[in-house]
Amino acid sequence: MSRHPILKWAQRSDKIYLTVDLADAKDVKLKLEPDGKFIFSAVKDGCDFVVDLELFDKVNVEESKYVVGPRNISYIIIKAESNWWPRLIKQEGKTPAFLKADWDKWVDEDEENGGMDFDGMDFSVSWKVMQQCETGLSSIFTSEKLLM
């Protein structure tokens, strides 16, 4: 009987970061198809590990790259069209238990290009006012009248 390794994923508008957490994997086989079919298989300690996913959208197989390391298998999958996917796989509903967000690589859509957009708001004025308020409060709390 085969098992599923833990898969962690994150995305950008143009790519998917997919990491298979399986240390010391042997006989690693990876297959990525243009329609978004992703197949992984490997053996560890005599157990077969298999993943067969239908990704949310089409991918560019020629531009995608992977590295098989001693602790995991890392795949950078290039999307066929540059846009944000609502999820990694086509299947709607409950996400499979072995599929997790990779919070080390995760970036929200609005943060991809260098940070959050606050519509040109200038926080320097608010920061100065807040500092003045804090200074005023600390002088009130240290006055002799309140210490008695």
UniProtKB/TrEMBL annotation:
Signal peptide segment: none
Listed Pfam families: CS
BP GO annotations: chaperone-mediated protein complex assembly; protein folding; response to heat
Record has Lipid metabolism as a keyword: no
Family that this chain belongs to: Belongs to the p23/wos2 family.
Quaternary context: Interacts with HSP90 in an ATP-dependent manner.
Protein name in the entry: Co-chaperone protein p23
Naturally occurring in which organism (per UniProt): Linum tenue
